[in-house]
Design brief:
about 130 residues; mainly alpha; two-stranded antiparallel sheet
């Protein structure tokens, strides 16, 4: 599972310990057994981490997704979907912030490329 998800075994154990990943079954040899659903959940966690969600926020998002996709009463699923919609807007805002940071990083790298190009490739250049 670590290889498939790109997460370390230590991270998988941590997510299990804090409740983000439900306890898995065990093989006769004592190894954890994961399902495709577990992999899907891990990939969701991994993507939330990229947007800097805390483990508490991740837990709430996963809980809401579980409710929205369950056979819970319609009112409960509707409430979960409404909260998820608000959280989707938050995720969009986080993504926009990251995009702005990437633009600034690209600009900075452009400045360095230009300045280093002038300094080392053409001595005497004043950028």
């Amino acid at each position: 599972m670590a290889e498939k998800s790109g997460l370390s075994s230590r991270t998988l154990r941590h997510y299990e310990a804090i409740g983000l990943l439900p306890p898995t079954g065990r093989s006769e040899g004592g190894y954890r057994v994961y399902t495709e659903e577990d992999l899907h959940r891990l990939m969701t966690i991994r993507r939330m981490k990229a947007l800097d969600y805390s483990t508490t926020e991740m837990g709430r998002l996963l809980e809401l997704l579980d409710i929205a996709e369950s056979d819970a009463p319609e009112a409960e699923r509707a409430d979960a979907r409404a909260e998820l919609e608000a959280l989707r807007e938050d995720a969009r805002a986080r993504r926009q912030k990251l995009a702005r940071q990437m633009e600034r990083a690209d600009e900075f790298l452009g400045i360095l490329d230009h300045r280093l190009g002038c300094t080392f490739l053409r001595p005497g250049c004043h950028a």
